[in-house]
Structures are given as structure tokens and as C-alpha cells.
């Protein structure tokens, strides 16, 4: 009833104001083509007032040019994985039974499992997403969750050409991945400026929802620097979060697709939706291109993201915190709870109780904005942190460090760190041991494998529940383990020696 009353009152005001108009004075503002109407209300209104109505020219809502210039630069990304047998889970499924790993499977379960593996040996499509071409020679950015765990990636262009893609690098913290196809002269979506994006601005989402290729939807920017972990049930962390929130319709299959402005420039990578059903329910979220540009550059140049950290634990300013800590002069910002030992923040003199209000003159109102500013930086970069202490504003010059407390570049590791080479088993050996495939360990030297007790001649059958057939399979699994923020850096290896004896090893990948 209250809502209805409010609506009627608003409508009533509009009618009365229209009826009471007695004179209109119009002027043209030559600087912007804005018409200013001065409307004076008649004397029957006891208050009497002068109102100014600003009428701007209609906004450009012709989306055709932006749509036509971007659909060729968005691709479909399909992931394929070989099905795993029930009851034994690996890297893709997130669980390995330690008892079964170390002591083996009961004999009565081995044969059914082997038959099921033989029946399900062909890779099957397990995922569908989108990607954005960022260079004419085949580099494509997409979401990490689109490619995570995939054995084969198939990219389909808008003209229906198909390619097998190679993963250049992934970053679970930002949910971004860089992949590449062997092609030239591809259509590229140029990168725009997500910092210049304004709330209320029109944007287009381009992708492949539910497999419907080259789908374009539109909406406006609803918010910037949005964090969504606190809004998701269970409070699951999404890593680095500073999303562009829009009301453009995005659904499963849009992940990794483009968010573009009306100039046809890439300003975000569509990543998530807020929904209780799994489908679009009004809001979608995109990673701003300011973060995308830095992450994909790092992945291309170094194979790993060079992440700088400030070295503070913090909470956002709230009315309750203001009252508790007797804070005056600021209403929002980042309240420093603790400062990490030997960190950038400690070296710069920051202390618990300080309130960070800006980074390099960019105002910081919440944690998402702080994360976005730091995500653009590399170890060794210098920033200016503005903070409030004892109700006085100060500036500190900070040299950012990495998580190891240095400014060194962190190169991506490789399976060479395992300390051996791998030989693919021939058909005769596979028939002898009644196995489908495997890799023989040879040329063993000092490395992770030797420290774990593995000897020359060991035949690897599975790593973390995934069958391995080539050295490339080992490399992919190694990279997935090392780059993951969610799993321990351990390889659980199942295999056998030439005697036929089964062995199980847990290889610690941390020096």
C-alpha cells in the first residue's frame, strides 16, 4: 500500500507542475547544445519557485556499429576431458582418497574400473565458454574457469573456422587465462579504458550463451569496483575482485566473452552473474580491462603473473568502526588492521589504525578499489599511498614487493624441475602390462622425483587421478598444480616398475 501511495504522489506532482506552468523561457547553451527551460509556477502555488529543466540531446543508442565491429573478435571455446571412473577423483574433481592412493584399490574393484576406463577413453566436451581475440596472430583472453582442467581446447571463430588452442598461462586469482591458436590476420577487439567508464554508460556483452554463437546483449554500467564474495552464499572468495557490474544479460557460455563500449572497445571480460538459479537474474560482472591488460601481458612475457602486494590486512570503514575508533574527517576508506613484517607497507612506515584513502591520487573507498590498483602493479613499482593517521592526512612513497618479499621477476616453473625425462610407452609394453598408456621415467637426476624416492624405469600411469600419455600431459598438470591457489603443491603419482609392482608416491613440489 505504501508503494502504491508513493507512486501516485509522484504522478500527482508531475500533473500539478504541468498544469501550473504559466511561462517558459528557453535559452540555448552553445557550448553543449543544451536547452535550459526556466519554468515559473503561477501564484496559485503559495511557495512560488523557479525550476530549471535541462534537456540534453538523445544519447547515442545505435548499437549496430559496435556490434558489427566486435562479433568477429569473439570466439567460442569448448573444453574436452577424458571421463574418469567413479570412486577415484583427481585434479579435475578435487579429491583423492589418500588410503586408496597409498594402499591401492581392492582387486575386485580393479577390473571393473579398467573396463570402464576402456569404454570412456575418448575425450568428451565438458565445458563451453567464450574468448576475445586480442592480437591478430592468435592470442585470445578468456576465463581461467573456462579452460581449467581441460585436456583439449577447441576454438571456433565467428566464420566457423576451428582451431586447437594452447594454454599460454592462467591466473586463478583474477580468473583469467591466455590461450593461443595457430592463425594469422584475425579480427581484433581493441582495448579501451575501463577507468573512463561511467556508471549509467551503455555497454554491450558479446559471447556464446547456451551455445548461441555471436550473441549480443546490451545494458548499462550499474556499478564499478564491485566485490561479490560477500554477496555469494558461503562467502567463497573469488580472488582479486573489482568487477564492472552491468545489467546486460549474461548467461552460461558468456564466460570469457567481451564487454565493450559503444565505440567497440574492449572494457571488460564477462566472468560471473549473481543468480540463485544459475541463469541471468539481473546483474552480471566483468573484469575491467585495466586488470586484463596487465595479467595477459605478464602471462605472455613471463608465463606467470607478477603480483605486487602492499602487505597489510584491512577492513573497510563502516559507521560502527568510525564510532568505535573515534574516526573523524573521513567516512570511508581502508582501515589497516595489521602490517606484515618486512613488507612494503612496513618499510613505508604504515601502522595499524591508519586509514588508506588514495593510491597515486586515485581515491580508495573500498577493498575492491584497493585490489584493482595493486593488481595493475608489478614488484618494484613505486606508488604513493595517502593515508589518515590521528585525523591528519599523510603521503608515503612505497616500493611494492612480491609475496616472497623481493622485487625479482617470478618465472613460471616447468616440469623440468621434476628432474627427469619421460618416454612414451610403445604398444608392446602396454600389452605386456595390460595398460592403455603410460610414461617411463628416465635420466633421473636431482629434482623433486628423486627426492620423493622415484627410481629410473618407473612407469607413470596417473598424476592426481589424471591419466598421462605424453610429457605435455605432465607439463599441463604440473602448471595447474603450481598456479592453483586452492590445492597443495603435491603430485600424487600412481605407477609401476618393470617387475609389475604397483607403487604410489606423493611428490612435494615445494623446495
Q: Rg, please?
A: 29 Å
Distance between the termini: 67 Å
User: What's the domain count?
Assistant: 4
- List low-pLDDT spans: 1-46, 85-105, 232-238
Helix content: 10-25%
Tell me the strand percentage band: 25-35%
Overall morphology: globular
Record the strand order, biggest sheet: 4-5-6-9-8-7
Q: Which CATH-level-2 architecture of the largest domain? A: Beta Barrel
Residue-averaged pLDDT, rounded? 80
- Helical element count? 12
Tell me the structural class. alpha+beta
Report on the biggest sheet. 6 strands, antiparallel, barrel
CATH class designation of the largest domain? Mainly Beta
The number of distinct β-strands equals: 27
* CATH topology assignment of the largest domain: Thrombin, subunit H
Layout of secondary structure:
Blueprint: H1 2-19, E1 21-29, E2 34-41, E3 50-55, H2 64-70, E4 74-81, H3 98-103, H4 107-119, E5 124-133, E6 139-142, H5 144-147, E7 152-156, E8 162-171, E9 176-180, E10 202-207, E11 215-226, E12 243-246, E13 258-260, E14 266-273, E15 284-288, H6 289-302, E16 312-316, H7 319-325, E17 334-339, H8 344-348, E18 355-359, E19 362-363, H9 367-375, E20 382-389, E21 392-399, E22 421-424, H10 427-433, E23 439-442, H11 448-452, E24 459-463, E25 466-467, H12 471-483, E26 490-496, E27 502-508
Antiparallel strand pairs: 1-2, 2-3, 4-5, 4-7, 5-6, 6-9, 7-8, 8-9, 10-11, 10-13, 11-12, 12-15, 13-14, 14-15, 16-17, 17-18, 18-19, 18-20, 20-21, 22-23, 23-24, 24-25, 24-26, 26-27
Amino acid at each position: 500500500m505504501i508503494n502504491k501511495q508513493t507512486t501516485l504522489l509522484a504522478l500527482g506532482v508531475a500533473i500539478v507542475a504541468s498544469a501550473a506552468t504559466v511561462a517558459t523561457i528557453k535559452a540555448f547553451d552553445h557550448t553543449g547544445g543544451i536547452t535550459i527551460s526556466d519554468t515559473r509556477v503561477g501564484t496559485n502555488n503559495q511557495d512560488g519557485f523557479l525550476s530549471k529543466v535541462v534537456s540534453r540531446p538523445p544519447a547515442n543508442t545505435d548499437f549496430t556499429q559496435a556490434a558489427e565491429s566486435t562479433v568477429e573478435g569473439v570466439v567460442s571455446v569448448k573444453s574436452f576431458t577424458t571421463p574418469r571412473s567413479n570412486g577415484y577423483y583427481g585434479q579435475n574433481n578435487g579429491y583423492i582418497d589418500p588410503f586408496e592412493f597409498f594402499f591401492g584399490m581392492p582387486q575386485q574393484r580393479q577390473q571393473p574400473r579398467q573396463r570402464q576406463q576402456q569404454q570412456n577413453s575418448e575425450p568428451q566436451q565438458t565445458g563451453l565458454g567464450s574468448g576475445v581475440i586480442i592480437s591478430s596472430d592468435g592470442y585470445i583472453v578468456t576465463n581461467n574457469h573456462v579452460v581449467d582442467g581441460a585436456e583439449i581446447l577447441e576454438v571456433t571463430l565467428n566464420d566457423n573456422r576451428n582451431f586447437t588452442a594452447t594454454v599460454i598461462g592462467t591466473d586463478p586469482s583474477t580468473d583469467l587465462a591466455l590461450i593461443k591458436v595457430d592463425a594469422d590476420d584475425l579480427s581484433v577487439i581493441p582495448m579501451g579504458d575501463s577507468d573512463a567508464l561511467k556508471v549509467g554508460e551503455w555497454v554491450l556483452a558479446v559471447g556464446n550463451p547456451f551455445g548461441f554463437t555471436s550473441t549480443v546483449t546490451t545494458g548499462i554500467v550499474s556499478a564499478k569496483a564491485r566485490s561479490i564474495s560477500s554477496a555469494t552464499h558461503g562467502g567463497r572468495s573469488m580472488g582479486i575482485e573489482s568487477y564492472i557490474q552491468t545489467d546486460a544479460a549474461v548467461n552460461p557460455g558468456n564466460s570469457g566473452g567481451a564487454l565493450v563500449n559503444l565505440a567497440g572497445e574492449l572494457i571488460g571480460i564477462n566472468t560471473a552473474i549473481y543468480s540463485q538459479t544459475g541463469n541471468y537474474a539481473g546483474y552480471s560482472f566483468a573484469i575491467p580491462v585495466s586488470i586484463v591488460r596487465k595479467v595477459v601481458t605478464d602471462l605472455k612475457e613471463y608465463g606467470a603473473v607478477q603480483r605486487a602486494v602492499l602487505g597489510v590486512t584491512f577492513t573497510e570503514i563502516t559507521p560502527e568502526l568510525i564510532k568505535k575508533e573515534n574516526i573523524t574527517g573521513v567516512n570511508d576508506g581502508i582501515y589497516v588492521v595489521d602490517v606484515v613484517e618486512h613488507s612494503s607497507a612496513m618499510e613505508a612506515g604504515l601502522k595499524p589504525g591508519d586509514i588508506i584513502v588514495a593510491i597515486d591520487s586515485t581515491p580508495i573507498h573500498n577493498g575492491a578499489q584497493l585490489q584493482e590498483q595493486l593488481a595493475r602493479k608489478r614488484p618494484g613499482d613505486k606508488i604513493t599511498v595517502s593515508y589518515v593517521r590521528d585525523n591528519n592526512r599523510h603521503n608515503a612513497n612505497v616500493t611494492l614487493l612480491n609475496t616472497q618479499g623481493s622485487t625479482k621477476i617470478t618465472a613460471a616453473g616447468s616440469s623440468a624441475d621434476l628432474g627427469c625425462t619421460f618416454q612414451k610407452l610403445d604398444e608392446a609394453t602396454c600389452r605386456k602390462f595390460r595398460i592403455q598408456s603410460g610414461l617411463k621415467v628416465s635420466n633421473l637426476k636431482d629434482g623433486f622425483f628423486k627426492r620423493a624416492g622415484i627410481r629410473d624405469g618407473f612407469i607413470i600411469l596417473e598424476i592426481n587421478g589424471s591419466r598421462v600419455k605424453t610429457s605435455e600431459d605432465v607439463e599441463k598438470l604440473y602448471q595447474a598444480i603450481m598456479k592453483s591457489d586452492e590445492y597443495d603443491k603435491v603430485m600424487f603419482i600412481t605407477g609401476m616398475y618393470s617387475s609389475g609392482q604397483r607403487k604410489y608416491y606423493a611428490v612435494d613440489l615445494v623446495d
